[in-house]
Amino acid sequence: MHELAITQSVVDAVCEKAAGRPVHTVTVRVGALTAVVPDSMRFCFDLVTAGTVAEGARLQIEQPGGSGHCRACDTDIPLDGLVLLCPCGSADVRVVSGRELQIVSMKVG
Amino acid sequence: MRIGVPGEEGATPHHPHPPADGRDHAHGGAHGHGHDSHDTHEHGRAGDGDATVTLEQRVLAKNELLAEENRAWLAERGVVAVNLMSSPGSGKTTLLERTVRDLSGRREVAVVEGDQETMLDADRIKRAGCAVVQVNTGAGCHLDAGMVRGALTALRPSPGSLVLVENVGNLVCPALFDLGEQSKVVIISVTEGSDKPLKYPYMFAAADLVLINKIDLLPHVDFDVDQCVRYARSVSPGLRVLTVSATTGEGMDDWYAWVARQYGPDAQAPVAAAR
């Protein structure tokens, strides 16, 4: 379960930046085309924050959808998975968004 | 996580000291701060005294930094590292053993073995005749750049050598972690389903090359190679796919030629002339 390592990275970064202040909310952005499961991340978040300044913090997850650009018909298309097939029949699709995996912000104090 | 060398007692620490050979080890002092804090600022104190801190940083920033350091460290030495990923039982270790034997005398090969537990694969690779370091991840389901950094420091690959990294057998987690390798290879065997690329699209999307292994078994199994290739290219258009049998050797020259090309467009295929 790589979400544990991913969530550990989030909590490490947040605690470093919090510099001892208690963390109340952490907001992350997890694109629809990343191999990261938000529910697993929530589960791991409570485990990983235990005993840190982020213990008890709320995890907010933004989930931007996926989109791609078809090079064959030169149009943007929504993507709900990594099978890159344009309605025009071409599989020559470049992923434009949905692969975000970012720590957006946190509330401390 | 622990790092071990076959035949040696105990384990090497995660971050052993750099080799004491006077070379400037690019990994030194990598735990600096600030590398991933480029966009941090605080603003808008809310009424309850909370401050919102904007981070806008990549979740895997730390791993990516370590991976970049690994990449630089390898490049300085002209070492090519290839990350081999697959589900358990695809024949990855057998393929490695054959690769080590076939390339011996032509290019120095060293192996980083990743597994949750045991030294079994590292012992096999050592018997095949090359330097090997085992990384046991414990509960971890993938290698990360920090583990590979520790393994490289223990392995000390020679300039110009080939480092093959056998990731933990798992078609999900390893796809997310950049190790600093030059390229990622996914191995799938014909005893698995030809629909694997659709079931594990992240892995195939991340791959530079797919090896379809155990093709000597094709007469006995229900595996459609063409369909597997189509599925793989549906998540990664233009993906290179080679069919091989690590048992009979069929197709392995194509794999060695691909490895040779990782050294640059003019590199010679090391084994083609030897057969």
Can you give a write-up of this model?
The complex is a heterodimer of chains A (109) and B (275). Chain A is an alpha+beta fold and 109 residues long. Helices cover 27% and strands 33% of the residues of chain A. Chain A has a 3-stranded mixed β-sheet. In chain A, strands 4-3-5 form a 3-stranded antiparallel β-sheet, with no helix packed on it. In chain A, strand 3 (66-70) and strand 4 form a beta hairpin. Chain A starts with a helix and ends with a strand. The mean pLDDT of chain A is 93. In chain B, the strands form 2 sheets. In chain B, strands 1-6-5-7-4-8-9-10 form an 8-stranded mixed β-sheet, sandwiched between helices. In chain B, helix 1 (61-76) runs parallel beside helix 4 (145-155). Chain B is of the alpha/beta class and 275 residues long. Chain B is 29% helix and 20% strand. Chain B has helices at 61-76, 92-103, 120-128, 145-155, 196-199, 201-206, 225-235, 252-261; strands spanning 2-4, 41-43, 51-58, 80-86, 109-115, 131-136, 162-166, 183-189, 209-213, 240-243. Chain A binds chain B through residues 1-2, 5-6, 9-10, 12-14, 16-18, 24, 28, 34-36, 81-85, 91-93, 101-109, and chain B through 33, 36-37, 40, 45-46, 48-63, 140-142, 144, 172-173, 175-177, 198, 201-202, 205, 233-237.
